[in-house]
Amino acid sequence: MKVNLKKRIITALLIYPIIALLILFSNDLVIRLLLYVIIFLSTFEISKMCFQNGITKKYHYFFIGLVFYLIFLSNGLIMHNIWHYFVILSFVSWIFISFYIIKHKNIVVNNNFNIFFLFLCALILGSLYCSLLTLYLLSPILLLYLISLVAISDISAFFIGKKIGKNSFFENISPNKTKEGFYGSIFTSSVFSLIFCLFQNYSYDFIVKFILLSVTVVVFSAVGDLSVSLIKRYSGNKDSGNILPGHGGILDRIDSLLPAAPTFLIFSFFLTDIIK
């Protein structure tokens, strides 16, 4: 356990500075290529877990093709500044997914994922690309803030849960996650959000709205984490892959961003005027 934790810390310390430098000092071509790689690997990880067994094996190439069609579509939507239709659809999907997780009780290994699940996963991955790229084009600093917020939320939930966690949080899906860890992540993320606002010299009213937005994003990020955990349990996998030492697959690292990115982008753009 300690060896695995050490690997997780070292991997995170190596990856985060690279991503931060790319976001702040590269250009949109580099960010597009980075997102292509992330979505490409995540697509294959989902397909390996869900669409390479039994009768669903025939969906493998269709799923991969559909995801990349949605990425191509996203580029067109962003170019014509109508990306919000796609992102709103994703956000609405995450609301329904949240209710599904809350009410979900029994989990059994499933070797026959249906076509609806395929389209839903493709929508989620396509909208992640659309949301992150749009946010970068609008404000690289806010993209870095979002990634940092989600990372701090995940880290604090893990360590606070390990330290004082006693009550399981959705035990049937992810027994190691605790309510104490979840509430701790909200508190830690709120403090981080406040510090960011003070450095940006935002007004008091704006700070309140920004922190509320950040808390909302953290709540949805937990849904993303639970959703990928549910997929792994359905498919009988412990991790989505093993590409990142101590972390598992790429999907294991971006799961919280899946709902967090569209949520942050939609709320900041339409409700709080954070993006100007």
Walk me through what this model shows.
The chain has 276 residues and is an all-alpha fold. The protein has one domain. 76% of the residues lie in helices and 0% in strands. It is built from 10 helices and no strands. Helix 4 (83-103) packs across helix 5 (115-138) and helix 4 packs across helix 10. The termini are far apart. The model has no long low-confidence stretch (mean pLDDT 86).
List keywords for this structure.
globular; mainly alpha; 276 residues
Task: Write the topology of this structure.
Elements: H1 2-25, H2 28-50, H3 60-79, H4 83-103, H5 115-138, H6 140-164, H7 179-200, H8 204-235, H9 250-254, H10 257-270
Model regions low in confidence, pLDDT < 50 over at least 5 residues: none
Q: If helices are DSSP runs of H or I spanning 4 or more residues, what is the number of helices?
A: 10
Principal-axis shape = globular
Query: How much helix, percentage-wise, in residues?
Result: over 70%
Tally of distinct domains: 1
Oligomer status? single chain
Span of the ends, CA to CA? 45 Å
How big a fraction of the residues is strand?
Answer: under 5%
Radius of gyration: 18 Å
The count of strands amounts to 0
Q: What's the overall average pLDDT, rounded?
A: 86
Structural class based on helices, strands and sheet pairing: mainly alpha
In N-to-C order, the SSE pattern is HHHHHHHHHH
Biggest sheet architecture: none
